[in-house]
Amino acid sequence: MCSGLDGLYLDVVISAFNSHSDGKLILGIITLLFDPLPIRDLLAKPIGELRPHLHELRSVLLVPDTLDEPIRVYHASFRDFLMDPQPSSNHFIDQRRHHSSITLFSLRLMTEELRCNPCNICDPSKLNSEVPDLNAMCKTSIGGAVQYACRCWGCPSVQINPRWDPSRSFISFRLEVAAVLD
Protein backbone atom coordinates (compact mmCIF):
# COMPACT_ATOMS: atom_id res chain seq x y z
CA MET A 1 0.00 0.00 0.00
CA CYS A 2 1.45 3.36 -1.05
CA SER A 3 1.01 6.73 0.58
CA GLY A 4 -0.79 9.37 -1.48
CA LEU A 5 2.40 10.97 -2.79
CA ASP A 6 4.10 7.63 -3.42
CA GLY A 7 1.04 6.44 -5.35
CA LEU A 8 1.10 9.59 -7.47
CA TYR A 9 4.81 9.17 -8.19
CA LEU A 10 4.34 5.51 -9.08
CA ASP A 11 1.50 6.33 -11.50
CA VAL A 12 3.62 9.01 -13.20
CA VAL A 13 6.66 6.73 -13.58
CA ILE A 14 4.59 3.81 -14.86
CA SER A 15 2.75 5.93 -17.42
CA ALA A 16 5.97 7.53 -18.67
CA PHE A 17 8.18 4.48 -18.95
CA ASN A 18 5.94 1.44 -19.02
CA SER A 19 7.01 0.58 -22.57
CA HIS A 20 10.50 2.15 -22.54
CA SER A 21 13.32 -0.23 -21.68
CA ASP A 22 15.72 2.57 -20.66
CA GLY A 23 13.26 4.38 -18.38
CA LYS A 24 14.97 3.39 -15.16
CA LEU A 25 18.38 4.33 -16.58
CA ILE A 26 17.11 7.73 -17.70
CA LEU A 27 15.51 8.48 -14.32
CA GLY A 28 18.60 7.26 -12.51
CA ILE A 29 20.86 9.54 -14.50
CA ILE A 30 18.57 12.56 -14.08
CA THR A 31 18.22 12.08 -10.33
CA LEU A 32 21.82 11.11 -9.53
CA LEU A 33 23.85 13.60 -11.57
CA PHE A 34 25.82 15.99 -9.41
CA ASP A 35 25.07 18.82 -11.88
CA PRO A 36 21.91 18.68 -14.05
CA LEU A 37 22.55 18.33 -17.77
CA PRO A 38 20.56 19.65 -20.72
CA ILE A 39 18.47 17.16 -22.68
CA ARG A 40 20.93 17.14 -25.58
CA ASP A 41 23.74 15.97 -23.28
CA LEU A 42 21.83 13.46 -21.18
CA LEU A 43 22.26 10.25 -23.11
CA ALA A 44 23.61 8.97 -26.36
CA LYS A 45 20.00 8.49 -27.48
CA PRO A 46 18.11 10.28 -30.21
CA ILE A 47 16.36 13.25 -28.60
CA GLY A 48 13.12 12.46 -30.42
CA GLU A 49 13.09 9.06 -28.74
CA LEU A 50 13.33 10.58 -25.23
CA ARG A 51 11.05 13.60 -25.62
CA PRO A 52 7.67 11.83 -25.30
CA HIS A 53 8.77 10.01 -22.14
CA LEU A 54 10.23 13.14 -20.59
CA HIS A 55 7.04 15.04 -21.43
CA GLU A 56 5.07 12.46 -19.42
CA LEU A 57 7.27 13.28 -16.40
CA ARG A 58 6.56 17.03 -16.38
CA SER A 59 4.56 16.71 -13.18
CA VAL A 60 7.73 15.63 -11.33
CA LEU A 61 10.53 16.98 -13.54
CA LEU A 62 11.18 20.43 -14.93
CA VAL A 63 11.64 19.52 -18.59
CA PRO A 64 12.54 22.67 -20.53
CA ASP A 65 11.28 23.34 -24.04
CA THR A 66 14.80 24.03 -25.30
CA LEU A 67 17.52 21.43 -25.61
CA ASP A 68 20.11 23.66 -23.93
CA GLU A 69 18.52 23.89 -20.47
CA PRO A 70 18.95 21.26 -17.77
CA ILE A 71 16.26 18.86 -16.62
CA ARG A 72 15.62 19.23 -12.89
CA VAL A 73 13.66 17.32 -10.28
CA TYR A 74 10.88 19.54 -8.84
CA HIS A 75 10.98 18.14 -5.35
CA ALA A 76 13.46 16.04 -3.36
CA SER A 77 10.64 13.69 -2.33
CA PHE A 78 10.54 12.30 -5.89
CA ARG A 79 14.22 11.43 -5.70
CA ASP A 80 13.64 9.90 -2.25
CA PHE A 81 10.76 7.85 -3.69
CA LEU A 82 12.96 6.45 -6.46
CA MET A 83 15.78 5.59 -4.03
CA ASP A 84 13.48 3.68 -1.65
CA PRO A 85 12.85 0.08 -2.76
CA GLN A 86 9.53 -0.22 -0.89
CA PRO A 87 7.21 2.31 -2.53
CA SER A 88 8.94 2.47 -5.92
CA SER A 89 8.90 -1.35 -6.28
CA ASN A 90 10.40 -2.36 -9.63
CA HIS A 91 11.15 1.30 -10.48
CA PHE A 92 13.68 1.48 -7.63
CA ILE A 93 16.93 3.26 -8.56
CA ASP A 94 19.90 1.37 -7.14
CA GLN A 95 22.37 4.19 -6.45
CA ARG A 96 25.48 2.01 -6.56
CA ARG A 97 24.50 0.45 -9.89
CA HIS A 98 23.53 3.78 -11.45
CA HIS A 99 26.62 5.59 -10.15
CA SER A 100 28.64 2.77 -11.68
CA SER A 101 26.84 3.28 -15.02
CA ILE A 102 27.44 7.03 -14.88
CA THR A 103 31.14 6.47 -14.16
CA LEU A 104 31.52 3.98 -17.01
CA PHE A 105 29.61 6.26 -19.40
CA SER A 106 31.85 9.18 -18.36
CA LEU A 107 35.04 7.20 -18.88
CA ARG A 108 33.85 5.92 -22.26
CA LEU A 109 32.85 9.41 -23.32
CA MET A 110 36.20 10.87 -22.28
CA THR A 111 38.06 8.09 -24.08
CA GLU A 112 36.12 8.70 -27.30
CA GLU A 113 35.83 12.49 -27.24
CA LEU A 114 38.90 13.99 -25.56
CA ARG A 115 41.89 15.12 -27.54
CA CYS A 116 44.94 17.25 -26.95
CA ASN A 117 44.27 21.01 -26.78
CA PRO A 118 40.49 20.79 -27.32
CA CYS A 119 40.05 24.59 -27.29
CA ASN A 120 42.90 25.14 -29.78
CA ILE A 121 44.74 27.54 -27.49
CA CYS A 122 47.70 28.80 -29.50
CA ASP A 123 50.04 29.38 -26.57
CA PRO A 124 49.75 26.68 -23.89
CA SER A 125 52.03 28.65 -21.57
CA LYS A 126 49.30 31.27 -20.98
CA LEU A 127 47.28 31.27 -17.79
CA ASN A 128 43.54 30.73 -18.18
CA SER A 129 42.97 34.37 -17.21
CA GLU A 130 45.19 35.43 -20.14
CA VAL A 131 43.20 33.51 -22.77
CA PRO A 132 40.53 35.78 -24.30
CA ASP A 133 37.01 34.31 -24.34
CA LEU A 134 38.09 31.03 -22.73
CA ASN A 135 34.57 30.29 -21.45
CA ALA A 136 33.09 30.73 -24.92
CA MET A 137 35.85 28.57 -26.42
CA CYS A 138 35.11 25.81 -23.89
CA LYS A 139 31.37 25.92 -24.61
CA THR A 140 31.86 25.60 -28.36
CA SER A 141 34.76 23.11 -28.27
CA ILE A 142 33.81 20.81 -25.40
CA GLY A 143 30.28 19.36 -25.24
CA GLY A 144 28.27 19.55 -22.03
CA ALA A 145 28.40 15.81 -21.36
CA VAL A 146 32.18 15.81 -21.83
CA GLN A 147 32.51 18.80 -19.49
CA TYR A 148 30.39 16.97 -16.90
CA ALA A 149 32.46 13.80 -17.31
CA CYS A 150 35.72 15.71 -16.82
CA ARG A 151 34.44 17.51 -13.74
CA CYS A 152 32.55 14.73 -12.02
CA TRP A 153 33.67 11.29 -13.24
CA GLY A 154 35.37 10.51 -9.94
CA CYS A 155 32.42 11.56 -7.77
CA PRO A 156 30.25 8.50 -8.53
CA SER A 157 33.29 6.26 -7.98
CA VAL A 158 33.54 7.55 -4.44
CA GLN A 159 29.83 6.70 -4.01
CA ILE A 160 30.52 3.18 -5.26
CA ASN A 161 33.69 2.63 -3.22
CA PRO A 162 34.54 5.22 -0.52
CA ARG A 163 38.16 4.01 -0.47
CA TRP A 164 38.64 4.82 -4.16
CA ASP A 165 41.60 7.14 -4.69
CA PRO A 166 41.27 9.40 -7.76
CA SER A 167 44.98 10.29 -7.58
CA ARG A 168 45.76 6.76 -8.81
CA SER A 169 43.89 7.42 -12.04
CA PHE A 170 45.47 9.61 -14.66
CA ILE A 171 43.95 10.73 -17.91
CA SER A 172 46.04 13.56 -19.28
CA PHE A 173 43.43 14.98 -21.63
CA ARG A 174 40.81 14.96 -18.87
CA LEU A 175 43.17 17.01 -16.74
CA GLU A 176 43.71 19.42 -19.61
CA VAL A 177 39.96 19.96 -20.05
CA ALA A 178 39.38 20.25 -16.31
CA ALA A 179 42.10 22.90 -16.16
CA VAL A 180 40.31 25.20 -18.62
CA LEU A 181 36.82 24.73 -17.18
CA ASP A 182 35.58 26.92 -14.35
Structure at a glance:
This protein has helices at 4-17, 23-32, 39-42, 47-56, 76-83, 85-88, 95-113, 134-141, 144-152, 154-160, 172-180, and strands spanning 61-62, 72-73.
- Spans where pLDDT lies below 50 across 5 or more residues: 157-161, 166-170
* Overall pLDDT score: 76
* Major sheet: 2 strands, antiparallel
Fraction of residues in helix: 55-70%
Count of the domains: 2
Number of helices: 11
Instruction: Report Rg.
Output: 18 Å
Summing up helix and strand content along with how strands pair, one would put the structural category as: mainly alpha
Number of DSSP E strands: 2
Shape, per Cα inertia axes: elongated
Main β-sheet, spatial strand arrangement: 1-2
Order of helices and strands: HHHHEEHHHHHHH
Distance between the termini: 47 Å
Strand content: under 5%
SSE order and pairing:
Blueprint: H1 4-17, H2 23-32, H3 39-42, H4 47-56, E1 61-62, E2 72-73, H5 76-83, H6 85-88, H7 95-113, H8 134-141, H9 144-152, H10 154-160, H11 172-180
Antiparallel strand pairs: 1-2
How does this model look, in words?
With 182 residues, this protein is mostly helical. The chain folds into two domains: 4-93; 97-180, no CATH class. It is built from eleven helices and two strands; from the N terminus they run ααααββααααααα. The chain has a two-stranded antiparallel sheet. Helix 2 (23-32) packs across helix 7. The longest helix is centred in the middle third of the chain and has 19 residues, at 95-113.
